[in-house]
Write a structure and sequence with these properties.
The complex is a heterodimer of chains A (about 280) and B (about 300).
Chain A (H helix, E strand, L loop, with lengths): L8 H26 L3 H6 L13 H9 L2 H32 L5 H13 L6 H10 L6 H25 L3 H9 L4 H12 L1 H17 L2 H6 L8 H11 L4 H31 L5
Helix pairs in contact in A: 1-13, 3-13, 4-7, 4-10, 4-12, 5-7, 7-10, 10-13, 12-13
Chain B lengths: L1 H5 L6 H28 L2 E3 L5 E3 L3 H8 L1 H36 L7 H13 L2 H11 L6 H8 L16 H13 L1 H12 L3 H9 L4 H12 L1 H16 L3 H7 L12 H10 E2 L2 E2 L2 H28 L7
Antiparallel strand pairs in B: 1-2, 3-4
Classes of the chains: A mainly alpha (about 280), B mainly alpha (about 300).
């Protein structure tokens, strides 16, 4: 009787497998069909590509008629640069807030925390004005600056908690030996917070890579378009060419999926360690 | 005193070196634009580009000028509906999946977690296009799929009709982001001490009642946090609607939310030119809505949920 309402392990697996299929099927459907000929895409969309239906015409079209390589390079540059700034500047500020007592430190911490909840997008009208007046419109620099500002609040918040947990002995021993504060930060603190830096890196990277809003507003030019914006414009243009549309989606999906599978453990550990609270 | 002098000279140069770069970039590109946007909402911009103080005029226009108020009320209403669907579908499914994953001795839980989280990683634009293709009557793959479950009439044009577009797009967004509540709730469930659940099981409870009576009340603070994160994200949404329905959020503005209204107001569309000060006004109102949500959350956490916290 006691177990009558308990789900058997088989039922649990059945539920989880069904949801996993719901989560993955649409993505896999797009990827498989991008390798098929136009006729096969429409005639048998649910079958895997085989020797008869295999066709790379979509990829040829995409790589030939759009600057996908440029988009990728732009996205990578913007993401890597923003990431570097967020990690280095964020760790520096987090260290200052966690380590030194100074008048107004609570105020600075609160001031920096505002950005965790309030989306930077809401300031777009003025942000565009500022970027134009700095002469940075249609440059990747504009995106890097905005994404750095966007990523810093959460980075500082997470890293500060980590740094606060580092035992004082290490730092005090170094200080007794006359090591400068800069050396303590670079040689002692940074290596110790590497796991937290990895978590912050993943949280910073995903929204930057996927963003449409700021590329659309601050850098819509063909030379500065990121993958997300490039795809959006390419598909708008080739909306009836199914091979090209499916291929361009696949080109945008696959690198992220590979990166995700490589780093998923890091990401999930970050999410489940209560780093975002 | 001794420990004070350990932390450097009275004027701590290093303090500024560490803190200043982050504070400067954050202030210049986040706080300043936000404040300046709030300020701009009280100004009007003439055709020659000059600005003049306008008081509450922009706000009065949005709420009383019929052309503006219809759009604004429509977008706000749609946005609340968008949020409501996330709260009613995304978060319960997320909690349910997290509860399943946190069952003791479940095999393959890491695999499930990783795979179910996958759509969350992709760009909203990509997700929008994927579903647009699947639901497209031209491809017909959606019709084939619903045929398997006995719906032989095929799919109606879900993204083409006023009555279904917003609902469909909300569910697409739910499908993409269900991984976030799942992960956060799962993490909270791991922190519930096993003794509590074991004690209840010994006393004759099953996993199901143990979840409802013991675990769920204990993780309410996380549920509240997930709700406020959902709220902020939903009222800041734009990419999905823009990618699938464009800035006009059709058909007939039926999928218009605050983000798309903000974009249209700011940049203009078709024959209507963009209007930065009205754009700033819409952004300020979005700011106000989000602020209200965050305040309610902080208030609720402070007043009620704290006592459950472990």
């Amino acid at each position: 009787m006691r177990n009558s309402r308990r789900l058997g392990p088989l039922a649990v697996h059945a539920l989880l497998i069904s949801y996993t299929i719901i989560a993955l099927f649409p993505i896999l459907l797009i990827i498989f069909n991008s390798f098929k000929s136009r006729k096969a895409i429409f005639k048998s969309p649910l079958s895997l590509p085989d020797a008869n239906t295999f066709d790379l015409v979509g990829f040829e079209k995409v790589l030939g008629s759009s600057s996908f390589d440029v988009y990728f390079l732009n996205s990578i540059s913007v993401t890597v640069m923003s990431l570097a700034f967020v990690l280095v500047l964020g760790a520096m500020a987090a260290w200052a807030l966690a380590e030194y007592d100074f008048p107004g430190s609570d105020f600075v911490a609160l001031f920096l925390a505002i950005g965790i909840m309030i989306p930077i997008r809401l300031g777009s009208v003025s942000l565009l004005k500022i970027i134009v007046s700095l002469g940075l419109i249609n440059t990747l620099t504009a995106l890097v600056l905005v994404y750095t500002a966007q990523g810093l609040p959460l980075a500082i918040f997470i890293l500060r908690e980590f740094i606060a947990q580092i035992p004082d002995d290490l730092k005090e021993a170094a200080r007794c030996d006359g090591v400068t504060e800069y050396r303590i930060f670079w040689s002692i603190i940074l290596p110790l917070i590497r796991p937290a830096l990895a978590t912050v890196a993943v949280f910073t990277m995903i929204p930057v890579w996927n963003d449409l809003w700021f590329p659309l507003i601050l850098a819509p030019g063909e030379d500065t378009a990121t993958v997300t914006l490039g795809i959006q414009q390419f598909i708008g243009q080739y909306v009836t060419d199914w091979n090209a549309v499916l291929a361009s989606l696949t080109l945008a999906i696959v690198p992220i999926l590979i990166l995700y599978l490589v780093f998923s453990r890091q990401l999930i550990r970050g999410l489940t360690s209560g780093a975002v609270k | 005193m001794a420990s004070q002098s350990n932390k450097g000279s009275p004027f701590k140069t290093h303090l500024f070196v560490f803190l200043l770069p982050a504070v400067l970039i954050y202030s210049a590109f986040m706080i300043l634009p936000l404040i300046d946007t709030l300020r701009l909402s009280f100004y009007s911009i003439e055709t020659d580009g000059a600005t003049s103080f306008a008081g509450w005029a922009n706000y009065i226009t949005i709420f009383t000028d019929e052309r503006w108020s219809t759009d604004f009320v429509n977008a706000l209403k749609n946005n609340f509906l968008f949020f409501l669907i996330h709260m009613l579908v995304q978060n319960p499914i997320g909690i349910f999946l997290a509860a399943l994953l946190s069952l003791p001795r479940l095999k393959l839980k890491n695999t499930y977690r990783t795979l179910i989280f996958m759509p969350t990683m992709l760009s909203v634009v990509i997700i929008g296009f994927i579903w647009q293709l699947i639901l497209s009557p031209i491809w017909g793959v959606g019709d084939t799929l619903v045929g398997f479950v006995g719906m032989n009439d095929g799919l109606p044009p879900l993204l083409g009709e006023e009555s279904t577009t917003l609902l469909t797009l909300s569910l697409v967004s739910v499908w993409q982001f269900v991984g976030i509540p799942m992960m956060l709730i799962y993490a909270a469930l791991l922190n519930v001490p096993d003794d509590l659940v074991d004690a209840a099981i010994v006393d004759g409870a099953n996993q199901w009642t143990a979840f409802w009576r013991i675990k769920l009340p204990l993780i309410l603070p996380t549920v509240a946090m997930v709700s406020v994160l959902t709220f902020v994200a939903n009222f800041n949404a734009f990419d999905l609607i823009y990618a699938v329905k464009g800035a006009l959020a059709g058909p007939n503005f039926s999928s218009d939310i605050m983000g798309t209204l903000f974009y249209r107001t700011f940049f203009g569309f078709q024959l209507q030119p963009g209007n930065p000060s009205m754009g700033a006004t819409v952004a300020s109102l979005m700011f106000l809505v989000i602020l209200c949500g965050v305040m309610i959350y902080l208030y609720a956490i402070q007043r009620r949920l704290r006592r459950y916290q472990l």
